[in-house]
Each structure stands twice: as C-alpha cells, then as structure tokens.
C-alpha cells in the first residue's frame, strides 16, 4: 500500500525551509560564574579602543556594571559590581546602531533603496570594513573574521555532516548568499563603482552575512534587524531560560543628547566576582579572578542545527536535537483539491515541515495531516464537502486499519532511508564524543549527526509501536457505531441499520 504514495509525499532528507530572516528573538540576561585568570587573558587592544570610544561618547561610565573580557566563548561581558534585579546592564544610543536606517542615511543609502534589508546592511558593513577612514573602524576591528558557523566550514569539514539535514540547509544557505551576492554585484556594486572603490568579494559578503546571523537582534519597535556594538559581545548560555530582557526607550544618549536607546537589563540580581588565591599555587602573587559572565538566551526554540548554522556551537540539551519531516499533498493525488482545501482550513500548507524534537511527542497536527494525505479508497467519503468542517476532528483519531497502516509504513520507510544515509552509527558518534579532544567543528558535526539519528530512531519507534497496535486501535466506523449506541441508550431514535 505504501506504493500508493509518490516519493514527494514524505521527504525527510529534503532541505528544511529556511526563513532568511536575520532577526533574533528577544534575549535574556543572566549571570553564571566562571573562573578565569585575568593575567592569562589580556583584553585585545581593539576591544580596549572600543571601550574608550564609548567612554568618550558618554555611552558607558564608571556606573556601567559590566566590562568586556576574554572568556571561553571568545569575547564576552563580565559583571564588575553587584547588580540588582531589573538593573540596566548596557544602553546604546541609536547613533551607534547598524541597521537598515543606518544604511539609508549613509553614502550608499540611495543605491541600496529597495534592497532586501540584510543585503543592504551586509553591503554597508563590507564597504565600511574596506575603508581606512571608516567612522565604524573601531567597532569593525572587534568583529571576528570568522566563527564556527557551518557556512564557514571547508568541504572536508562539511563532509563530517554527510547525511544530515544541517548539511542540506548549510549548502542551500550558501547558495542563497552567493545568489544574493551576484545580484548585488551586478545591480549595485558594479554600476556604482565610485561608491564601492575597493573590490568586494564573495568571501567579504559571507563574512557580513555571518556577522549578521550571529550578532543581529530584532528591534522591539519595528522588525528590522539591528547590530548593536558592545551589546553584541554578549554570549549564550543554556542555563538561561527566559528571553525577555531587551528594551527600547528614549533617554540620555551621551553628554548633551537625548535619543532612542537599545537597553539590556537583568531580571536577576548578581553579586560581582571577587579575587581569590589560586588554591594550588604556592606563589601568593598568582591570583585567579572568580568572575561573573553575563549571558543571554539566544532562543529557547532554536534547534542545535540552527545554533550550529548561525552561531557555530551546539548544546547538549536533548530537546535541541531535532529532525524536520516535510509532508506534502502530492498534486497527482486524485483528491488533491479536496485535501488542499482541508489542509488550508486547518492552517497548514500543501507542503508543511514538522519539526520533531528529541524526547518530545509528535507535533499535534502531524498525525491528522498524515492521515489526510493517506486518505483514499473506501475512506474517501470523509472528503465529501458536507464534512469539510468536521473532517479534521475525525483525522485526529485513527480512520481505518488500512489508512493507519499506510502512514506507519511510509514514515518507517522514510526513517529507515534517512538513517541509511549517515555513514556512522550513534554508538560510533558517542564514542568519538566521549573520547574527547575533538576540534570544535568536528564536535559540532558529530553532535548534530548523532542528534538527528536519535530523533529518527524516536520517530521510527513511535510508528513501530503504532504498527503493533493496529488490530487494537479504534477506527472511525467503530467510533460512529459507538456514538450511535450511546444515543440509543439515552432513549433517542436509533437508525435502523444499528438496531
Ligand atoms: C553575539 S556574538 C558574542 C560575542 C563573541 N563571543 C565574540 O567574541 O565576539 C556570538 C558568537 O559568540 C560565540 N558564542 C556565544 N555563545 C556561545 C556559547 N555558549 N558557546 C560557544 N560559543 C558561543 C559564537 O562564536 C557566536 O557566533
């Protein structure tokens, strides 16, 4: 019966639809202890220059409760004094923001008019980076040349992702960026050489894209992306479980000015770090600083694939492991129009991605959608227009033995096929991870491929269990009969066939 379905019905290895929004959801602050030697991690001069610049501009002062520091995640923000709940950590005035408005009021504003906002900000960043006299030079010097985000991986590094959805997504994002670059080059850069005197390469454009994906926030008022110097030094921690700590307000924006401020606050109080003697050291002058690093939550709903793609790290939290199943009503289906109608009525598209998380149940609309796609034969009466408003309710429960068997077969076959595309087993991956000493990118690759396989085994397990219970499930006709009997017990009329 599985052959009833064309191959487009369920395509697990299909590239996940990527929403090329560069917006990061609102973020959260918190404070985690970290032990760090202040002597062994000197602050780069570029970061000191940025701090001095912001001091001179009156953006930070002796009252600012954080300072930049070198932390395991690269640069980060460190608490310098006790901070009370809901205190402001940093506030950066609008004149230091980099967003589509910044581009609009710049020399390239006119030629970038109408461009996709992220493309215009990317062109702006690259152009400023290539200028010796850029007003933004002090900030741009602090930005990393690259991260461990998968768009920056070599072919050899990407080969470690063989079989994964993340590999497909990374390749399609790279293709998309390349296409946008070629378009921008042909339509904006080449026709306006006087504005872009230095050659801009695809690698430059990728750098800017990577910067935006890993550092841009979404504005609270209005949805345009924005990069905020200094605030973008904040790192992510799995330990932070809330996302709501960014505010915008109008306030003092320097020595004599008033402006819109992008403001980062905390909802938890924090006591600043203190100097302690290194316990193993006999030399009393060697001291370790017990520091409080300020972290945010980059997005509670982001999967490990999204974290790896955007930021270049993954978490060990199980539910960050996900697998996306793409379900589609095939246009060759004899009931295509009816099924599409029902799909739309219930808020789904003809092709819908269902993200399944490790340790979580299937998304609620997945089983009804599967049953709808599989609907045919003697069950096709449920597609009658007179049942249009009630059919989804029926699909939330098993329809018929045949229908349920089809969905089990199709999903299990798809899982088996997807699992056969990974060159390693979960055991092999876990052995690599426990042996340790993996380079960061290999660690990410191994974590991603083992996470995806775990989710596929979980999905397969769910449908295997269903398959074993096919004879015990209650189907539509039995449910209808039961309902009729209940009506009968209440003394109402019973249709003659049921008597
Ligand atoms: C918004 S920036 C934060 C500042 C950054 N650490 C730096 O050195 O400029 C985001 C980047 O920081 C790093 N990062 C943030 N949180 C991290 C974490 N929990 N684990 C590993 N890297 C992290 C990643 O490279 C990520 O792309």
Automatic annotation (TrEMBL):
Record carries keyword Transferase: yes
Organism listed in the record: Dillenia turbinata
A biological-process GO annotation: methylation
Family annotation (InterPro entries): Rubisco_LSMT_MeTrfase_plant, Rubisco_LSMT_subst-bd, Rubisco_LSMT_subst-bd_sf, SET_dom, SET_dom_sf, SET_RBCMT, SETD3_SETD6_MTase
Similarity remark: Belongs to the class V-like SAM-binding methyltransferase superfamily. Plant protein-lysine LSMT methyltransferase family.
Keywords assigned: Chloroplast, Methyltransferase, Plastid, S-adenosyl-L-methionine, Transferase, Transit peptide
Record protein name field: SET domain
SUPFAM superfamilies: RuBisCo LSMT C-terminal, substrate-binding domain, SET domain
């Amino acid at each position: 019966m599985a052959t009833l379905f064309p191959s487009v019905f369920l395509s697990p290895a299909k590239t996940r639809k990527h929403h090329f929004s560069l917006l990061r959801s609102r973020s959260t602050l918190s404070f985690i202890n970290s032990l760090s030697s202040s002597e062994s991690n000197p602050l780069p001069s570029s970061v000191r220059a940025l701090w001095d610049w912001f001091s001179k501009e009156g953006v930070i002062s002796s009252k600012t409760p954080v300072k930049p520091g070198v932390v395991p995640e690269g640069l980060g923000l460190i608490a310098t004094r006790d901070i009370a709940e809901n205190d402001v950590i940093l506030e950066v005035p609008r004149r230091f923001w980099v967003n589509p408005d910044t581009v609009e009021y710049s020399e390239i504003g006119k030629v970038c008019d109408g461009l996709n906002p992220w493309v215009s900000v990317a062109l702006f960043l690259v152009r400023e980076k290539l200028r010796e006299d850029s007003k933004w030079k002090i900030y741009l010097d602090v930005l990393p040349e690259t991260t461990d985000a998968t768009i920056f991986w070599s072919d050899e590094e990407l080969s470690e992702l063989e079989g994964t959805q993340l590999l497909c997504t990374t390749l399609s994002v790279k293709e998309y960026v390349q296409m946008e670059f070629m378009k921008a080059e042909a339509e904006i850069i080449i026709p306006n050489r006087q504005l872009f005197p230095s050659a801009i390469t695809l690698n430059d454009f990728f750098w800017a894209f990577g910067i935006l994906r890993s550092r841009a926030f979404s504005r609270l008022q209005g949805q345009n992306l924005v990069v905020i110097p200094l605030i973008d030094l904040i790192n992510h921690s799995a330990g932070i479980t809330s996302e709501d700590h960014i505010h915008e307000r109008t306030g003092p924006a320097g020595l004599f000015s008033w402006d819109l401020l992008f403001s980062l606050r905390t909802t938890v109080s924090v006591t600043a770090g203190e100097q302690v003697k290194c316990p193993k050291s006999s030399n009393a002058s060697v001291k370790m600083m017990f520091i409080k690093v300020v972290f945010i939550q980059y997005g509670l709903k982001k999967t490990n694939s999204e974290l790896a793609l955007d930021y270049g790290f993954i978490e060990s939290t199980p539910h960050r492991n996900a697998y996306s199943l793409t379900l589609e009503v095939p246009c060759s289906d004899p009931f295509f129009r009816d099924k599409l109608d029902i799909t739309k009525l219930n808020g789904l598209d003809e092709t819908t991605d269902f993200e399944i998380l490790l340790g979580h149940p299937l998304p609620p609309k997945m089983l009804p959608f599967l049953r709808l796609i599989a609907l045919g034969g003697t069950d096709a009466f449920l597609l009658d227009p007179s049942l249009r408003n009630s059919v989804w309710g029926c699909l939330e429960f098993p329809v018929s033995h045949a229908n349920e068997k089809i969905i089990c077969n199709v999903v299990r076959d798809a899982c088996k096929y997807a699992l056969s595309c990974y060159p390693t087993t979960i055991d092999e991956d876990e052995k690599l991870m426990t042996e340790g000493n993996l380079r960061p990118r290999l660690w990410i690759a191994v974590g991603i491929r083992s996470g995806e396989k775990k989710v596929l085994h979980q999905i397969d397990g769910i449908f295997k269990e269903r398959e074993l219970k096919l004879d015990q499930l209650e189907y539509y006709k039995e449910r209808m009969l039961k309902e009729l009997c209940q009506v009968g017990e209440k003394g109402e009329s019973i249709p003659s066939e049921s008597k």
